[in-house]
Write a structure and sequence with these properties.
Helix 6 packs parallel to helix 10 and helix 15 packs across helix 16. The strands form 3 sheets. Strands 7-8-6-9-10-11-12-13-14 form a 9-stranded mixed β-sheet, with helices on both faces. Strands 15-16-20-17-18-19 form a 6-stranded mixed β-sheet, sandwiched between helices. The protein has a 5-stranded parallel β-sheet with strand order 3-2-1-4-5. It is α/β, with parallel strands linked by helices. The protein is built from 16 helices and 20 strands. Helix 8 links the parallel strand 9 and strand 10.
Length: 455
C-alpha cells in the first residue's frame, strides 16, 4: 500500500482507540471509501451509533490480533501506546502503522503551523489562531485541543493555515508530517509513564522538525538550551523568542512592549499591558504566538486585538474566585514538575499548593526551593502522596488529603486570611479523575461549594 497520497478506498484499516482523535480518523477514512474497524478496550463508547451510521465496524472490549495483522493500515489514537502486542504484530507483518496526526496531514491542502513543548501548547495554539484570524487569514485551530486534525480536512484549502497543538504521543507516530512553521516552546521531563526515558520523549518532540526544509521555519525558545539543541538538527530557518530580552534578533520584551528585534531596529508588536494572563511564564506563550504572527504576516494591530481579548484557557492559571481574602487558582493542566514549578513561582508568599495524582516522572525535589520561600504548605492527594511527603516534607509542611473536597477545605483554612490556594498537581489525574479537565472542574465545584457555604 502506497501511503503518500493516501488512496484508501477499499482498503482495510484498523483504528486503535475510540476517543475523539480515533473517531475523527475513522470518519475521515470512511468518507474516503476505506473499510474501517475501530477497536477499543472499553466495552462501550459514546460514539458507537455515530460510527456505525457511517458503516464503521466496532470492536469493543479488547483488541483482536487478526483485526490488526490482517489490515492494510493501522491508525493509532494518541492515547494508544505504540508497543501494544497487536500493534507490534501488525508491524512485524509489514502493516504500516501511523498516528492520527500523520493520517490527517496527508489529506491537507493548506499549510500547517505545529506547536509543541512540555508546557504552554494550548495557550500558544489558541493565541496564534486568534492572531491569524484577527489578521484575516483562513485559519483552523485544533489537534491535541479542540477538533482533531482529521476533523479539519474537509475545511482545508490551499489558503488554509492549520494551527495544530502537537503532543509527543502524536508526533512519535509521524513519518511525513511537515509543518511550515514548527514551534518548540520548552522541554523538561514528562510522560515518563509512557515514554521509556527522557531521550525517547525528546526524540518524539523533535520529530516536529524532522521533515522541514529550508523554506520552513522553526520557532524556538532561546532561553531553553534543550530546545535550541533540538532545532539545530533540522533544516528550517530558526526564529528565536526570549522573555529575558537577551536577543540581537527575534521576538522579545523591550520597555513594556513585545517587539520583533531586527538588525535594523525593533518593531513594536503589542504592549505588555494588553496581556491579561496570570503568571510571567505565560508571556513566553505570547512571544511564541507573536513570532508565528510575524512569519505569517499578521499586523501588530491584529496581534494586539487577539491578546487583549484573551483571558486565558480553562485549567491554565485560571483565577476561579476570591473568598474571604483567599484567591483560588486552577492550574490543573500543570501535569508535570516543571509546569508546577512555574505556577508556584508566579506567587511570592502565603501560598498553599495542592499537589499530587498519578506520578509521570521527573524530580519532585525541584519544587523544594520555590516552595520553601513562597508556601505555607502543601496538601497532597492521590497516588503520589508518599512521593511528595518524601521529597518535600523537610522544607515545607505536607498534609495528605484523601479526596479533593477535603484537600480544598484544608488548603482554604491554611491559606486564610489572605493567601492563595493553587491547584498545580505536577502529576496526571488518572488515579482519581478521567482527565485534567475533570480534575479542574471538580476543583472549581469545590470552590463554589465554599462560596455557597458562606466561607
Amino acid at each position: 500500500m502506497t501511503l503518500i497520497g493516501m488512496e484508501v478506498r477499499g482498503r482495510l484499516v484498523a483504528v486503535a482507540g475510540a476517543a475523539r482523535s480515533g473517531v475523527a480518523a475513522a470518519e475521515l477514512l470512511a468518507r474516503r471509501g476505506a473499510i474501517v474497524t475501530v477497536s477499543d478496550l472499553r466495552p462501550e463508547v459514546e460514539s458507537a451509533d455515530r460510527l456505525r451510521a457511517l458503516g464503521i465496524r466496532l470492536e469493543l472490549g479488547g483488541h483482536r490480533m487478526t483485526t490488526f495483522t490482517g489490515a492494510d493500515l493501522v491508525v493509532l489514537s494518541p492515547g494508544v501506546p505504540a508497543d501494544q502486542p497487536v500493534v507490534a504484530s501488525a508491524r512485524a507483518r509489514g502493516v504500516p502503522v501511523i498516528g492520527e496526526l500523520e493520517l490527517a496531514s496527508r489529506f491537507l491542502q493548506g499549510r500547517v503551523i505545529a506547536i509543541t513543548g512540555t508546557k504552554g501548547k494550548s495557550t500558544t495554539t489558541t493565541l496564534a489562531g486568534r492572531m491569524l484570524d484577527a489578521a484575516g487569514f483562513d485559519v483552523t485551530v485544533g489537534g491535541n485541543i479542540g477538533a482533531p486534525l482529521s476533523a479539519q480536512v474537509d475545511q482545508s484549502s490551499a489558503r488554509t493555515l492549520h494551527v495544530v497543538e502537537a503532543s509527543s504521543f502524536q508526533l512519535e507516530q509521524t513519518e511525513t508530517f511537515h509543518p511550515w512553521i514548527a514551534v518548540m516552546l520548552n522541554f523538561s521531563p514528562d510522560h515518563l509513564d509512557r515514554h521509556p526515558d527522557v531521550r525517547a520523549y525528546a526524540a518524539a518532540k523533535a520529530r516536529v522538525f524532522a521533515n522541514q526544509t529550508g523554506a520552513d521555519w522553526a520557532v524556538v525558545n532561546a532561553d531553553d538550551p534543550a530546545v535550541l539543541e533540538m532545532a539545530r538538527v533540522g533544516r528550517a530557518g530558526i526564529r528565536l523568542f526570549s522573555r529575558s530580552g537577551a536577543l540581537a534578533e527575534g521576538t522579545t520584551v523591550e520597555t513594556g512592549w513585545v517587539v520583533n528585534r531586527r538588525r535594523e531596529g525593533a518593531d513594536r508588536l503589542l504592549p505588555l499591558s494588553a496581556v491579561h494572563l496570570l503568571g510571567p511564564h505565560l508571556v513566553d506563550d505570547v512571544l511564541a504566538a507573536a513570532t508565528v504572527g510575524v512569519l505569517a504576516g499578521a499586523s501588530p494591530a491584529a496581534m494586539t486585538t487577539a491578546v487583549e481579548g484573551f483571558r486565558g484557557l480553562e485549567h491554565a492559571m485560571e483565577l476561579v474566585d476570591e473568598i474571604g481574602g483567599v484567591r483560588f487558582i486552577n492550574d490543573s493542566k500543570a501535569t508535570n514538575v516543571d509546569a508546577a514549578r512555574q505556577a508556584i513561582e508566579t506567587f511570592s508568599r502565603d501560598l498553599v499548593v495542592i499537589l499530587g495524582g498519578r506520578f509521570k516522572g521527573g524530580d519532585l525535589r525541584l519544587l523544594r526551593t520555590p516552595l520553601a520561600t513562597r508556601a505555607r504548605g502543601v496538601v497532597a492527594i492521590g497516588e503520589a502522596t508518599p512521593r511528595l511527603v518524601e521529597a518535600l516534607s523537610d522544607v515545607v509542611p505536607v498534609r495528605p488529603a484523601d479526596s479533593l473536597p477535603s484537600a480544598v477545605d484544608r488548603a482554604f483554612e491554611w491559606a486564610r486570611p489572605s493567601g492563595v490556594v493553587l491547584l498545580a498537581p505536577a502529576c496526571a489525574s488518572f488515579d482519581m479523575f478521567v482527565d485534567y479537565a475533570e480534575r479542574g472542574r471538580r476543583f472549581k465545584a469545590e470552590v463554589a461549594r465554599l462560596r455557597r457555604e458562606g466561607a
